Structure formats: structure tokens, C-alpha cells
Amino acid sequence: MNFELETLNLKLRRMRIYLIGYMGCGKSTLGRSLATHLNLQFVDMDHYIEMRNHKTIPQIFAEEGEAEFRKKERKALEELSEFGDIVIATGGGAPCFFDNIDLMNNSGKTIYLNIDPSILADRLLKSKTERPLIKGKSKEELTAFINDTLSKRNQFYKQAQFQITRPDIGLKEIEDMIS
Ligand code: S3P
Asked: Using a 6 Å cutoff on CB, does residue 10 contact ligand 1?
């Protein structure tokens, strides 16, 4: 077998897990623990985009707009889909643009963290992370925004191969579910 084919085989055989779901559903927190539990690397996609572009996410939104952010997000996903032995916490909108959800499903295991909208609203109101899409929204505005965007995004999130609905699910249970 030639070298390129062997490398490709290695890449394909290696474990790659994508955590998807709405802002505030806990992708990064769970991703970190799951990666440690499975002895894999962890990458937060937003952080990767910031490092790659030398700008924060709020800066990209403010200076270049959402459409440009989505292109950068797609590029980051293409790069990360080549990494092996990794758990990736994706940005909340990532599966909902271009054919990103297909790319994820074709290159790894996808897990949707399906968390109740009222829990999302509470967490996002308390969160210190600056998120351009919801910045400055009151509780009522945020709740309406979550309901509206979730109704559009669910069709993408629901394409994940696995789904978690209980925030207290154990890591071993997740490991068994995806193996
Ligand atoms: C976004 C979610 C954010 C970040 C950006 C846009 C979205 O990531 O990618 O602010 O469209 O839902 P988190 O889900 O990690 O907050």
C-alpha cells in the first residue's frame, strides 16, 4: 500500500466526535470531560477560529459581519475534520450553515446536546462569554430569540447521529452510546 493511502486510512480510523447544539447547552464543558474520559484531545471551535484569524468572535462579527464569520467557521470545520482522536465543541450555528452537518456526519460521530430552552435562557443570561447574536437582550427578548432560532435550527441539530437530553448524563453512558 502506498504512503498516501496508508495516511488516509489512519486518518479515517481515528476517532472524531462533534458536539453540536445551541449556545449555552454545555458543549465545551461536556467536550472537555468527554475528551479526558476517552483520552482524546479537545478543541473548542470558536477558540480555534479566534487563534486562526487573530481576532475574537465579537471582533469578527463587528468588523466583517456574520456572513464572513460563517465562511471562517466553515474553513475551520474543514481543517478540524482532518484532525484525529479529537472531541470538537462546535459553535451553536455551525451545523446550520452550508452542508456543515453532512461534513460532520461523514467525518465523525455527531452528538446533539438537546437542552430545554428555558435552561438555555437562564444560562445565557448568567454567562460571561460575549456572544454577538444575543448581546444586550432582555430575558423576554432572549427567550423569544431562542425559540425562533431553535425552530429553524432544529432540523439541522436533529440530523446528529446521537442525542443527549439529560444534562446529568454520565460519561460512561455517552461512551457506551456512541461505541
Ligand atoms: C453562535 C454561537 C457561538 C459562536 C457565535 C455564533 C451561533 O458559539 O460560534 O457567537 O450562531 O449560535 P457557542 O455556541 O459556543 O456560544
From this structure: no
pLDDT per residue as tens digits for the range 163-172: 999 988 999 9
Does ligand 1 lie within 6 Å of residue 57's CB atom?
yes
pTM: 0.93
- Kindly report the protein residue whose alpha carbon is nearest to atom 10 of ligand 1: 131
What whole-number distance in Å separates Cα of residue 40 and Cα of residue 86?
A: 5
Model confidence at 13, pLDDT cuts 50, 70, 90, reads low
Q: Whose CA is nearest to atom 16 of ligand 1?
A: 23
d(CA 131, CA 124): 9
Spatial neighbors of 72 by CB under 8 A, at least 6 apart, are: 49, 52, 53, 60
pLDDT in tens, 15-41: 999 999 999 999 999 999 999 999 999
CA distance 167 to 157: 17
